[in-house]
Amino acid sequence: MKRIECKLKLSFEDIRNMMIDERIEFPKYVSPLINLANQFAQATRPKVVGQMSELIRICPYKDFEGWRKWYLERYPNAIDDATERIMEMLEKFKLALDKIDRETVKRWVEDLVIVKTYLGLRIQEPILKFLSNTLGMNYRLSTPEEESAGIDGFVGEFSISIKPTTYREKSKLVKETIKSDVIIFYEKDKQNNIVIKELESLTDKGDEFLNMLIGKLF
Predict the structure, then answer these.
(1) For residue 89, is it within any domain?
(2) In terms of pTM, does the model score above 0.85?
């Protein structure tokens, strides 16, 4: 008896070469651009080309040529429709490219590297500013000494701690180590939006703060 331990990987290109005889090659950069245009145009969504996972499941043919013929009989216009959508988007790309110069690219890079990095990593200040605007109070970020007590900032005289929702799993530890009046739990979604999920008071002042917020927000 023999036992072989291995880790074999079949890439998509390996599978394609084994299963399909025809070869399709595109000039450099063309395929990524078409793919990007397709994403914007939503040209290969199910409403245009059908629900592919379901179609491939119910197709009575198991070979590639059988599948191709069967699909095109059922969706005779789908390829042309998707192509037209992508072409329209590529035309829009061409118009946009004519408007891109070095200064435009520089502003884009600066926005990504400096602005979005700052906004993406500085979670506390936007939340503090939102609360201060809601309640009509001033806000400030905490000092290093206040940070060591788990305080991220103040809205008026109320001390605030701002934590991701993952901290809720450690809520007992958080309450023991944080000396703020209120804890705010947040999440960030795929679009980098900040979503406040929960507010919890740790002191009588915290109760007062939440009561004021309830009167303004809910």
Answers:
(1) yes
(2) no
